[in-house]
């Protein structure tokens, strides 16, 4: 029997058993769709986290108070101990490293922001950041109006601020915000700039922030300690040197004690990439179990088919069909059913992926290429493997007994 005749014969058999075909297609389709959707969820989470950290800046080195050997975990959370503060002078000392292009000390707090004095003043609660003029360049942020924080001595608390787009809109409405005054706590700040649209980064909507000079933030929140120090290395290959210099300088300033954690952007990204990549593979593998269940269904359907088609098989063998050709008939049917189910599953999975993208446009849901290949391939292999026993049973039928229904 030629290959074309074999496929034509298998296709006719598949079309003839409507219920049997529908059951197998449904089982295979569910398995493939599950793999595609689950892997799209995992890949979307991985890309979202990578984008969030990538938006922090370029060639970034982050200095945190407290010591932890685990990259990406808060040192104070890991140790449970009170950490020694990183002061503004500590941060400025890090500029001695020849590998550092620029740095930005950072203080983060929450404050009630008023548009103006008076009973009808608009008030909103939001994040208040304290930093320096280099914060804008390090974080790859942009301005839509005005200027950013002025340079000069970071110890000097100038009463100016830069606000996000949402803050400007909610507090001033359609009126120009530049030159207007804000009150945060008991201090007043003059608006000198409005940030361009930035979106959310690591849980903070930069459209809702108010950025003031770091010295003003220290006075506002009554603290000398910094939340972070952001360093930007001159080149990508100088990031390790910037990290080593930061650790050395901080150790010298803290009487030889290694009480800060220095992490690099690449290290954090690599850690999250490994974790989320492994998680995607794991949940994709769990979803693939449904394909094994579908394979069992294929085996049962094929066994029933062998019992129902004894006369047909006997006639084929009486006409000269060999045992190998009988096996090939059943394998061809299994492959056709698996391919049909895989195609339906891929279509449903990709439609589900589009629905996720529409529901959560900020998360880049997309099934990885290996899932789009592995799911149909697994479906075909599973169908073939679970057809081995029914095919062998059909091939072993005696034509005389099969035709006489004994």
From TrEMBL:
Ranges of residues in domain ABC3 transporter permease C-terminal: 286-399
GO cellular component terms attached to this protein's record: plasma membrane
Family annotation (InterPro entries): ABC3_permease_C, MacB_PCD, Macrolide_Exporter_MacB
Transmembrane segment boundaries: 21-42, 281-307, 328-349, 369-389
Signal peptide: none
Location of the protein in the cell: Cell membrane
Main localisation: membrane
Keywords from the UniProt entry: Cell membrane, Membrane, Transmembrane, Transmembrane helix
Topology within the bilayer: Multi-pass membrane protein
Domain of life of the source: Bacteria
GO molecular function: transmembrane transporter activity
Domain (MacB-like periplasmic core) ranges: 21-248
Family stated for the protein in its record: Belongs to the ABC-4 integral membrane protein family.
Name the record gives this protein: Putative ABC transport system permease protein
Lineage of the species this protein comes from: Bacteria, Pseudomonadati, Pseudomonadota, Betaproteobacteria, Rhodocyclales
